[in-house]
Structure formats: C-alpha cells, structure tokens
C-alpha cells in the first residue's frame, strides 16, 4: 500500500 | 492532496523558477552551486522514473515533468550557456562524498530490494543532502545574493511544508513513510541555520552575510 501512495508525492 | 502538500509543491516550483529566472535575466550564475544543481537533477531523474510505471494524475505527471525539465535547464545554463560566470573556484564540495554514502545507504535501508525502489530511496536520501554544496559555497564566500537567499528559503520551506503534510496524512489517512519522513526532517534541519539568517537579515532588507 505504501508503495503506491508515495508516487503521489513529489 | 492536502493544502500543505500543495503549498509545498508550489514553494518547490517557485524556488526552481526563481533560480532559473535569476540566471536567465542576469545572464549569470555567480553564487550558485552547480554541484547542488547537478545533484537535484540526479534526484529528480532517479525519483521520477515512476512516470513510466505509475500514473497518478495529470497534476502529478505535469509537475514531475516540469521539475525535471527545469532542473536540466538550470544545469545546462550553468555548465554551457553561462559557463563563464560560473564560480567554480568556490564550488569545491566533492559530490562523491554525498553520492557514494547515500547510494550505499539506499542499498541497505529501503522498503523493497528492487531497482526502482532502490533508486527512489536513493533520490530521497540524496535530496536531503543535495543542498550542502550550495550551503558550503555560501559559507566559503560568506555571503549570498538576496535573490539566491529567496531561492533557498522557498526550497527549504518546501520540505518543511511536506513534514506538516506527513503529520496531517498520518492523522487523516494513517499513511506514513518512515524513509521519506526521516530524510525530510534531516533536509529541513540543514536549512535551520539559513532560515535564521534569512529572517533576521534578508527580511529586514539586508544582504545575507555570515557572521565573521
């Protein structure tokens, strides 16, 4: 889950 | 997306644009560390490889592309177009002292031992310390142009706002990424001394000079 979320941040 | 992250992104964008405009309009990159700019280009390159693997939103992809293009444009202006104005005598920080340990750490401490994940981790760690050549250069010359200090303030504010964003996300979404948080805190701490000088000097209309 964390692996998907972080691509959201710049 | 929350307001802190948006403000952080905009602050980051503002910093990048301030620097590009300063170099373009004065036709000079004096006082700017080319090594920090190369490191930032490397940070964006290794982090935004996810442009090819994860589509999040138009905003996300557009910002990533803008950061990438602007950071390469800055490096190009410094090392090619306005190379004659580049202050290489004062930009003596050794990049390998940052890249090698950060690369080693990314291999050892990461979420997942895959190439993309290691590169992402590398970019997070490298970003935390990429400003050191610039701060080192200012400490060598003892001063910074006011426009350069605005650039640094916007760049430092970006990660500070991201920390607030992470606190907010933790309480509202239960999301947290320890690697990003620890590196982001280190990054922000590096700016603290500069923030102090910025508030006590630059905001009062004086040039940023270091106490002797």
From TrEMBL, chain B:
The chain crosses the membrane at residues 62-80, 92-111, 117-138, 174-199. Keywords: Endoplasmic reticulum, ER-Golgi transport, Membrane, Protein transport, Receptor, Transmembrane, Transmembrane helix, Transport. Its main location: endoplasmic reticulum. It is a multi-pass membrane protein. The keyword Transmembrane helix applies. It comes from the Eukaryota. It is found in: Endoplasmic reticulum membrane. The keyword Transmembrane helix applies. Pfam families: ER_lumen_recept. Belongs to the ERD2 family. This is ER lumen protein-retaining receptor. It comes from Saccoglossus kowalevskii (Acorn worm). The lineage of its organism: Eukaryota, Metazoa, Hemichordata, Enteropneusta, Harrimaniidae. The gene is LOC100377465.
């Amino acid at each position: 889950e964390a692996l998907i979320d972080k691509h959201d941040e710049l | 997306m929350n307001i802190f992250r948006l403000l952080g992104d905009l602050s980051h964008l503002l910093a990048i644009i301030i620097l590009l405009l300063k170099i373009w309009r004065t036709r000079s990159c004096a006082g700017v560390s080319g090594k920090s700019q190369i490191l930032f280009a490397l940070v964006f390159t290794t982090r935004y490889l996810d442009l090819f693997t994860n589509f999040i939103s138009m905003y996300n992809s557009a910002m990533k592309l803008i950061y990438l293009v602007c950071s390469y444009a800055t490096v190009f202006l410094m090392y090619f177009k306005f190379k004659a104005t580049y202050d290489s005598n004062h930009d003596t920080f050794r990049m390998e002292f940052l890249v090698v340990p950060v690369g080693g750490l990314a291999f050892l401490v990461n979420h997942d031992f895959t190439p993309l994940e290691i590169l992402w981790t590398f970019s997070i760690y490298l970003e935390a310390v990429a400003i050191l050549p610039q701060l080192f250069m200012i400490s060598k010359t003892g001063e910074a142009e006011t426009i350069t200090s605005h650039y640094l303030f916007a760049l430092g504010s970006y990660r500070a706002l991201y920390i607030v964003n992470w606190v907010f996300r933790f309480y509202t979404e239960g999301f947290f990424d320890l690697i990003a948080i620890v590196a982001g805190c280190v990054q922000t701490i590096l700016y603290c001394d500069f923030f102090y000088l910025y508030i006590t000097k630059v905001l009062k209309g004086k040039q940023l000079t270091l106490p002797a």
